[in-house]
Amino acid sequence: MAAITHSKARYFGKALLGVLLGLSIYGCTQANSSRTNSVADGKPQVVATNTIIADLADEVGGEEIQLTGILEPGADPHVYEPVPADSRLMEEADLILYNGYNLEPGLIKLMNAAGGKARKLAVGEIVKPLQLDEGKGEVVPDPHVWGSAENAIAMVNAIRDALIELSPSDKATFTQNAAQLTQELQQLHTWINQQIQTIPPQKRQLVTTHDAFQYYGQTYGLAIAGTLIGISTEEQPSAQTVQRLVESIKKIGVPAIFAETTINPALIKTVAQEAGVQLASNELYSDSIGAKDSDGDSYIKMMESNTRTIVEALGGKYIPFQPKK
After folding, report:
1. What's 40's DSSP letter?
2. pLDDT digit string, tens, across residues 52-98
3. What is the pLDDT of residue 233?
4. Band of the pLDDT at 238, cuts 50, 70, 90?
5. CA neighbor of 285 nearest in space, from 267, 301, 269
6. Is the torsion defined by CA of 178, 290, 104, 46 positive or negative?
7. Which of 64, 103, 207, 314 is the right S-S partner for 170, CB 3.0 to 4.6 Å?
8. Pairing relation of β-strands 256-257 and 278-279?
């Protein structure tokens, strides 16, 4: 299912808005200029700040909600700068779903300043966070909670309950959709564990561009051996940081390290070259699902793609995920 919206009217609204206001005003926005004009149909208006939450909400809400995602696939929520259309979306929404734990700081600030009647749910904050030391005595909650499929189940349940509160008449549909998704997520969790176990134990170490895989590593038995930058992609690594990572990679002897889809891979490529290790042929999805028809265009497919990339690059044996209905 599409992670942003089901309604063809949304695209008509985008075209009409472009004619009336000019492409120069909203041409550089993400998904927000495609606000659908469907209030009259009575569907609850739901806004999701990032693509992962939008995908889960789309699966649970289905045709019973009008869902608009602010970020497009591949966009980085850490550094996204809101535009005026985002404020309008939030003011007109009945429910705003966001991750929380400061994953999307610009949008959280805008949401807190926006008017409107919307209920706000920090979906990621349903999960008790890992606390990570960002240096200089600063300990912060890790926002990348979806790295565990078990955490994703908790997020699905929270979305289900919020939608039921918003539209009680659709309770049966939301409950059924959430149950079906939960069943698949439980199978995904088991499958990931099985795949990671095929990696030789000494090679179960992950080096990535930014610190987004702690939940994945803790849940599925991978040590996070190093990252180029910390939790937020706003960080700029120093030359000393790069060199320390290079030396660490040489010491631990991992066969490959990993770039990410939402971050320019140039620097991590340099790290791989200097450390004399392979850069995995496929990038990991960290803060966003992939574009439509890619191998990561839903939360489940994103997790499957990441697992395949990790397993193959670290010497394991990959079997495709085939959920039982």
Report:
1. G
2. 999 999 999 999 999 999 999 999 999 999 999 999 999 999 999 99
3. 84
4. confident
5. 301
6. negative
7. 64
8. parallel
Predicted confidence band of residue 190 (pLDDT cuts 50, 70, 90)? very high
- The answer to whether residues 209 and 227 touch, using CB atoms and an 8 Å cutoff, is yes
Q: Whole-angstrom Cα distance, residue 244 to residue 233?
A: 19
Taking the C-alpha atoms of residue 73 and residue 56, their distance in angstroms, rounded to an integer, is 14
- Which residue reads 């039921």 in tokens? 164
Single-letter residue type at 319: I
Which tokens sit at 282?
């496929």
Task: Count CB neighbours of 79 within 10 A.
Answer: 15
Tokens of 143: 């926002």
The more confident residue out of 39 and 117 is 117
- Tokens representing 53? 């939450």
According to DSSP, the β-strands at 45-48 and 66-69 are parallel
CB atoms within 10 A of CB 141: 18
pLDDT attached to residue 25 = 29
Reported in sequence order, the residue ranges of 92-241 that DSSP labels E, i.e. its strands, are 95-98, 119-122, 131-133, 139-141, 205-210, 223-229
What is the spatial distance between Cα 145 and Cα 121, in angstroms, rounded to a whole number? Answer: 15
Residues 6+ apart with CB under 8 A from 76: 233, 262, 263, 287, 288
Residue ranges with strand state E in 81-222:
95-98, 119-122, 131-133, 139-141, 205-210
- SS3 state of residue 208: strand
Integer angstrom CA distances of residue 179 from 153, 173, 184, 191, 297: 10, 10, 9, 18, 21
Task: Quote the pLDDT of residue 1.
Answer: 40
CA 209, 211, 215, 221 torsion-angle sign:
positive
